[in-house]
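I'd like us to work through together how a protein chain folds, taking it slowly. To get us started, please write out a protein record for me. Go ahead whenever you are ready, and we will take it from there:
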Amino acid sequence: MTDQKPFRVVLWCVPRTASTAIAKCLTALDNTQVWFDPYGIAAMQESSLKMMAVEMPKSWDEFRPQELLTKLGAMVKGTPLEEKFKPELYDTSVWVRDGCRRQLEALPAGKSVFVKDMAYGVTGHLDLLPSKASGLRHTFLIRDPARMFPSWRKILIETMKAMPMPGQKPPDEATFDLTTDHPLVRPGMTYKCQYNLWKYVKENLDPNPVVIDTDDLLAAPAAVLSRYFKECGMPWDEKLLKWDASADVVKKWKTLFPLVGTPNDDTIKISYGKAFASSSFTASAPKIPRSEMTPDVIKAVDETSAYYNEMAATKIRV
């Protein structure tokens, strides 16, 4: 695999799609740097800081990371967040979308890069995507909303309980509405964001972007991934289907802050713990019957299924 021509691939996802396990799988490729949600985390940080009356600049030239870190340190001093705030560990070069764009446009010629990211990270900021000249291949990971939303609802509730935003009441699982009650979940954050990005890529960058479905991949990982790798110009090897269960490889990923080995581990593992401890792909759990879904999940499924279905019509089939 060492003689493989370098590749530049980004996989745009919605939540709960096994995308983190895919990133862990790809980490085993030679001469390859894995980026973890650079645009997605930048978007979430921007929204969180705005709630704290801190505005983030759009341009990298206007960004003053050390000033921001100092300000945040003063804001969390004396609060439960103080022990979790480790400014010396931040990779501030990817704190704003423009920083992500500039680095992805200036990658070393001989190194391969795989970016796992959330499509909502570029919503409203398509001008901050890397240019076509960067050679970045845009691909998409989709999943049936009826499988995604029940899982995501559970994660949102657990995360809000573990790390409440200022002034936020602990969520009541019986009455929680994922479409309105999470401070950072807004209309269109999931499937519509991915769909709009997919349309943009088709119209401006690649008329036939590769689309894969999580449940197809989990049912037949060798068949789906080998085809995906071929389409993207990545070197395939059956050995990639098994990887070390240790989370140490996560430390190699390029992202804003460490995902393991910090005081934030307990919170981060709510969303990513299972994927970080994975060593292979496992089949999807049975789909929850509609009759057992909560009303907010049914609403979310009904409002997003059309976006999923149109993209699914173009997915890889094996």
Observations:
- The chain has a mean pLDDT of 93.
- The first helix runs from residue 19 to 26.
- The longest strand covers residues 112-118.
- The two ends are 24 Å apart (CA to CA).
